[in-house]
Amino acid sequence: DIKHRTLNIEPVKLFGTDYPTKDGSCVRDYVHVIDIAQAHILALETIEQLSGRAYNLGNGEGYSVLEVVEAARKATHAEIPVKISPRRAGDPAVLVASSRRAKEELGWRPKFPELEAIIESAWTWMKKHPKGY
């Protein structure tokens, strides 16, 4: 968890640097919690018409682990150390969600599509709530 590691300056473990990605680290899709909550509300509002439907939620953009660390460094103004570790078995190089169905059926669109905005928002909240809720 970036908050814990940033405040305690513990290294973020980077599992593998030899993936076939632009910087060798895994790529994942990140979604702001507000966007996830909004999708849940929209799904509840349409539950009578679309009951039992499954939706993938994502921004459709992948960011590497190293890009996440760099964005966290920028938002927190902290030098977040990285510890390179071996790959974990079963970790795919890239996982990015298609939210096409959620967009078409629910009208869902992420309000925080950029990684920097997601991390900046999370960091602002964490600074206001240093002990959590």
From TrEMBL:
Segments forming domain NAD(P)-binding: 23-112
Biological processes annotated in GO: galactose catabolic process via UDP-galactose, Leloir pathway
Gene3D superfamilies: UDP-galactose 4-epimerase, domain 1 (3.90.25.10)
InterPro entries: NAD(P)-bd_dom (IPR016040), NAD(P)-bd_dom_sf (IPR036291)
One Pfam family matching this protein: GDP_Man_Dehyd
UniProt similarity note: Belongs to the NAD(P)-dependent epimerase/dehydratase family.
PANTHER family: UDP-ARABINOSE 4-EPIMERASE 1 (PTHR43725:SF53), UDP-GLUCOSE 4-EPIMERASE (PTHR43725)
Name by which UniProt lists this protein: NAD(P)-binding domain-containing protein
Lineage: unclassified sequences, metagenomes, ecological metagenomes
